[in-house]
Amino acid sequence: MKRIESRSxxxxxxxxxxxxxxxxxxxxTMGYLHAGHLALVDRARQENDVVVVSIFVNxxxxxxxxxxxxxxxxxxxxAALLAGRGVDIVYxxxxxxxxxxxxxxxxxxxxxxAGLCGRSRPGHFDGVLTVVAKLFHRVRPTRAYFGxxxxxxxxxxxxxxxDLDFDVEVVAVPTVREPDGLAMSSRNVYLxxxxxxxxxxxxxxxxxxxxAIRSGERRAAVLxxxxxTRIAAxxxxxxxxxxxVRWPDLRPxxxxxxxxxxxTVLVAAAVFFGTARLIDNVRVAxxxx
Amino acid sequence: MKRIESRSxxxxxxxxxxxxxxxxxxxxTMGYLHAGHLALVDRARQENDVVVVSIFVNxxxxxxxxxxxxxxxxxxxxAALLAGRGVDIVYxxxxxxxxxxxxxxxxxxxxxxAGLCGRSRPGHFDGVLTVVAKLFHRVRPTRAYFGxxxxxxxxxxxxxxxDLDFDVEVVAVPTVREPDGLAMSSRNVYLxxxxxxxxxxxxxxxxxxxxAIRSGERRAAVLxxxxxTRIAAxxxxxxxxxxxVRWPDLRPxxxxxxxxxxxTVLVAAAVFFGTARLIDNVRVAxxxx
Lengths: 289, 289
Fold this sequence. Notes:
The structure is a homodimer.
Chain A: E1 2-4, H1 7-19, E2 24-29, H2 35-47, E3 50-55, H3 75-83, E4 89-91, H4 95-98, E5 105-109, H5 116-120, H6 124-139, E6 143-147, H7 151-164, E7 169-173, H8 193-198, H9 201-214, H10 220-232, E8 237-246, E9 264-273, E10 276-285
Parallel strand pairs in A: 1-4, 2-3, 2-6, 3-4, 6-7
Antiparallel strand pairs in A: 8-9, 9-10
């Protein structure tokens, strides 16, 4: 496994791969890897000749007052984990390699970034799309792997690839969870023992909504209120948002609306437990009447 | 010369070129070709194995009330001109091929699009950058050719390639002019005989400024006022803007400022003659004291 820090070294390593037309799987991460990341890596390993994992905490996607500085980092641990998974290249550039100058031109998402996390984190997805576009150009992957936990990110990256004609297949990998249902996240490390004990309420509430939809509930207001009430029962929880949107276009479903049979909907939430802002979602096909 | 209308046919034609690692020169145009375009094509022909010319009037870069509908088009004439220049592929897609759905994700320029034409045409350069990024992805050119007449566009496309790590060399080609100095433009066709007779005042005024700078004039206000006065002498002219900026970062130079020896500056103007909005510019290295 090669560890590479610069764009030019990355090019040198990948040039023969490009020339030979071998397939490349890219797993973009911010590091501090957990089982969710490793599921992406394993899938990439199965499907490609060469696997590249990038580790880069992207300042462009953090807003003022967010956790860019304290975001957990442990490159040695990450590298050891990846070496055991058959990864070919770990690309872990410093900020100056990715942004030699503050960017003047970047990516910009429209309506699809207006709700969900985009509302709480203005500019976040523009920063995500900009760095992913750069990584796509630097690595030229055949396939790129993203987790379903970050559903809005996944939908936007797919849409970016479609709108801008990137020649890359965006592969979605299911969320990996702790035994009690909590979605794996590098930010779980922020949780105090009490918060950690309560955090699974997020997934339990969303799973309740999924089951209610499968059982015939169509009233958006009932679903939203049910999720909110269940989360609010945890005393360390503070809800950022609970939303219902269509998948994959992320069109909002108003509380007064009813779900349409045959459509796929996303029930998504962001909840603070102490200072940790955790997100999760479930995707459900609305059953026929 | 192949004439191609669809993205998939373009891929089919280019796949063997990509696989063989042959160089590709791309000349993106909106058609209605003139000698300025042909200079780009000739340069591309000299420097590359394969030359692709795109002809696409991009709706995304026209604002409401601008001339998208009446922009001149003559594909047969364009194709005949290009066949005589050794072009390999003319790609002239319909709007639905380029934008199968209205884009949700696009390119966005910051400060560099705030002045000059960007001030008069909000969103224009975002539309330009978005379509150029798409063409770069569809064609994968080794080099792409742009005219210096569209100086802000040139600076922004170069900056986009730098900021987003496109692996393409952006080649600038000098402005081609009529014998009386008027810059070649597809929009010159809008000019009435009287307007056409007066339009060369635009370049004469800018050329005066270039000469004044070379002769030691450093006062921005004197240069700006000199250009404005010369243009305003033409009775069919209506000035949109006259600006002085640094090249290539397009930082504005305030009227009260003095030019700095050693810097390169751009004197740029947009002027309406009747309904035709014409632009032109000169680039000058400020001589040492």
